[in-house]
């Protein structure tokens, strides 16, 4: 997808002073005259930014404005190494709120809604982003944060929350609790805004049906504002990305070459207005595609498809490469299998052993047939045969944040 003239104008405006303002980009683009970037081809020759680059700039090496202009910082979790710290100016915070309010509007949420916010607050960008957008929209924000399910359900009833925001894992946990406690008729939810992890269609339908809500996928990452840079519309076919703030590319993960619209590759983002920590050609490691053509909803903002996974999500077993999205596809088309699963990979006596645990309501011979069917579909779709084991509903763990589903103990 080529830049629009409006996007290119914003990029070139940034480039006029970027190296003077940012030591990070002075080093990154050493020997490159950004004034020479005049065409799409010129732009695509610029080097990518990687998460490791951002980690090496810890703590505030990404900052591109004076200290007195920074009003807030956010940070990635840092679970896989040094965290990434992103500084924000007041304009950055305002721009994030504008984008997030748009997300709510795209989902049909108005200032008459009551939005229960269950993602976490603090250094993480989640909870405060959902709140910023709600306040910008003029809706009632109920800033619960994660956990304390009893309190969540009590407030949901007493305050008559109409919108739930959550990770898919916690939305499922809440849906199951509402079912167990027979609260469906006592809640007023109508919309769900769900983000932060990929999830399959079966899980989506369970949450939608058990909560009685229409679900919208929201997209974002700490390095680029946070959640709220894109969302699905009423067509539920991909997520619109706010193209007046973000330019999207999809590249071949191995070669870095830009791919045509419609082909799956790694999503690369460039911020068009960010002041505190602009990002140029940032590799997200998220695998998706740009959906070609216009959306039936009428929005001109481009769409990316539901995420396939991440480049670092892939596991290789018995010579087969597999992504979570492929496993979820197997679960989806296996009759009798519910949405929750775990994949266990072990090496026993030099041999890789692959086990797929999945929840099912079936018992006895019906469960055995379901296990056999799942193994056959897995072999046909992915290329290797797992040991499929059905377990009772609710036996696999739920999470208030993100649920870990693939456990590889070989290394």
From TrEMBL:
Instruction: List the molecular function annotations (GO) for this entry.
Output: ligase activity
The UniProt entry, under InterPro entries, shows: Adenylate-forming_Reductase, AMP-bd_C_sf, AMP-dep_Lig_C, AMP-dep_synth/lig_dom, ANL_N_sf, PA_CoA_ligase
Annotated Basic and acidic residues bias: 397-411
- Residue limits of the AMP-dependent ligase C-terminal domain? 319-410
Q: What is the lineage of its organism?
A: Bacteria, Bacillati, Actinomycetota, Coriobacteriia, Eggerthellales
- Looking at the UniProt entry, the stretches that span the membrane are none
The keyword Acetylation is assigned to this record: no
- Could you identify this protein by its name? Phenylacetate--CoA ligase
Please give the organism.
Answer: Raoultibacter massiliensis
Asked if Ligase is a keyword of the record, the answer is: yes
All copies of the AMP-dependent synthetase/ligase domain together span: 59-269
Regions annotated as coiled coil: none
């Amino acid at each position: 997808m080529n830049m629009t003239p409006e996007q290119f104008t914003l990029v070139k405006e940034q480039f006029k002073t970027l190296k003077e303002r940012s030591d990070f980009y002075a080093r990154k683009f050493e020997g490159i005259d950004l004034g020479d970037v005049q065409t799409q081809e010129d732009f695509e020759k610029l080097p990518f930014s990687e998460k490791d680059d951002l980690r090496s700039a810890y703590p505030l090496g990404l900052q591109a404005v004076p200290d007195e202009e920074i009003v807030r910082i956010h940070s990635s979790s840092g679970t896989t190494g040094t965290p990434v710290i992103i500084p924000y100016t007041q304009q950055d915070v305002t721009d994030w709120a504008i984008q997030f309010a748009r997300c709510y509007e795209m989902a049909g949420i108005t200032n008459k809604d009551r939005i229960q916010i269950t993602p976490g607050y603090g250094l993480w960008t989640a909870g405060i982003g959902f709140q910023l957008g709600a306040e910008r929209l003029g809706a009632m924000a109920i800033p619960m944060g994660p956990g304390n399910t009893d309190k969540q359900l009590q407030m949901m009833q007493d305050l008559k929350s109409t919108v739930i925001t959550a990770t898919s894992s916690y939305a499922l946990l809440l849906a199951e609790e509402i079912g167990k406690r027979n609260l469906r008729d006592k809640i007023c939810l109508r919309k769900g805004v769900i983000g932060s992890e990929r999830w399959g269609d079966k899980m989506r339908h369970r949450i939608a049906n058990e909560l009685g809500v229409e679900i919208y996928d929201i997209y974002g990452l700490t390095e680029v504002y946070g959640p709220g840079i894109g969302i699905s519309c009423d067509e539920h076919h991909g997520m619109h990305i706010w193209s007046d703030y973000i330019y999207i590319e999809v590249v071949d993960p191995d070669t870095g070459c830009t791919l045509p619209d419609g082909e799956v590759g790694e999503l690369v983002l460039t911020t068009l207005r960010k002041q505190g920590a602009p990002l140029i050609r940032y590799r997200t490691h998220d695998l998706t595609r740009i959906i070609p053509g216009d959306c039936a909803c009428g929005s001109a903002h481009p769409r990316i498809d539901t995420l396939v996974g991440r480049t670092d999500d892939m596991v290789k077993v018995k010579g087969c490469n597999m992504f979570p999205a492929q496993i979820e596809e197997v679960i989806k088309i296996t009759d009798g299998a519910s949405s929750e699963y775990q994949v266990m990979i072990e090496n026993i006596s030099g041999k890789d052993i692959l086990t797929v645990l999945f929840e099912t309501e079936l018992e006895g011979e019906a469960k055995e047939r379901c296990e056999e069917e799942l193994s056959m579909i897995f072999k046909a779709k992915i290329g290797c045969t797992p040991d499929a084991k059905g377990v009772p509903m609710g036996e696999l763990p739920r999470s208030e944040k993100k649920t870990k589903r693939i456990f590889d103990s070989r290394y």
